[in-house]
Amino acid sequence: MTSDSDLPDLATAYALDAVSDAERADIEHRLAEAPAEVADAFRAEVRVVREAMARASATVAVTPPASLRQQALAVSRDPHRDSFRWRTGLLATAAAVVVAAGGFGAGLALRPLTAPTTAEQVLSAGDVRTVTGQLAAGGTATFMYSRDERSGVLVMNNAAPPPPGMVYQMWLMTDQGPESAGTMGAIAPSTTAMVRDLGDSSALAFTMEPDGGSTQPTGEMVARLSLT
């Protein structure tokens, strides 16, 4: 990463949480210091990506043709492509495949020349599954997960922001009781998060907790997604 002008090219992976913690921190540091037009371009692509994921998670798609994987990979490797348009269009197509049919996964097309991230490995896993549920305060939560990869990608669509001083907290429900899977305070129209170390958990649940999270659920459960 040699200049601020390449920041918009990193927005797709950033929006899908397909970057490491160090990469995310570096991107956010550069974004804070970038010229306004570069920062605006980055945020615009993040918004488009999340809107595409929101549409995909609410879509019942048909089984994709067998040629889709080869076509998508060919597009992603074309050196003459328009980066913004191919990422936006291909993401919407691939995400719909994952949500509806357990297809090859959006991640394979996002960063084809680097080692796959956890999110990419989940979305391209042979055992990837998808579960969607309604949130008590409105909106939906869609979880795409792989037992083989022990991780999942969460997409929350149109969720109500938590009250001041509160956050959404995720819980993996196990035989030993609920285990915290992280918190989400900043909620956009479409918000993504990674959930790791699924273990043998039977469900992913959500409660509203004080800022910083709780060691055990204290708030009312706002959603519960059963994991098979």
Automatic annotation (TrEMBL):
Gene Ontology terms: biological process: regulation of translation
An example molecular function term from Gene Ontology annotations: sigma factor antagonist activity
Pfam family, one: RskA_C
Location (main, coarse): membrane
Recorded coiled-coil stretches: none
Gene3D superfamilies: Anti-sigma factor, zinc-finger domain
Transcription in keyword set: yes
Keywords: Cell membrane, Membrane, Transcription, Transcription regulation, Transmembrane, Transmembrane helix
Domain Anti-sigma K factor RskA C-terminal: 91-220
TM annotation in the entry: 90-110
Signal peptide positions on this chain: none
Location(s), subcellular: Cell membrane
InterPro entries hit by this protein: Anti-sigma-K/W_factor (IPR051474), Anti_sigma_zinc_sf (IPR041916), RskA_C (IPR018764), RskA_N (IPR053877)
Superkingdom of this protein's organism: Bacteria
Cellular compartments per GO CC: plasma membrane
Membrane topology category: Single-pass membrane protein
Domain Anti-sigma-K factor RskA N-terminal positions: 8-54
Free-text note on domains in this protein's UniProt record: The cytosolic domain interacts with sigma factor SigK.
Function: An anti-sigma factor for extracytoplasmic function (ECF) sigma factor SigK. ECF sigma factors are held in an inactive form by an anti-sigma factor until released by regulated intramembrane proteolysis (RIP). RIP occurs when an extracytoplasmic signal triggers a concerted proteolytic cascade to transmit information and elicit cellular responses.
Family that this chain belongs to: Belongs to the anti-sigma-K factor family.
Protein name: Anti-sigma-K factor RskA
Name of the gene encoding the protein in the UniProt record: rskA_1
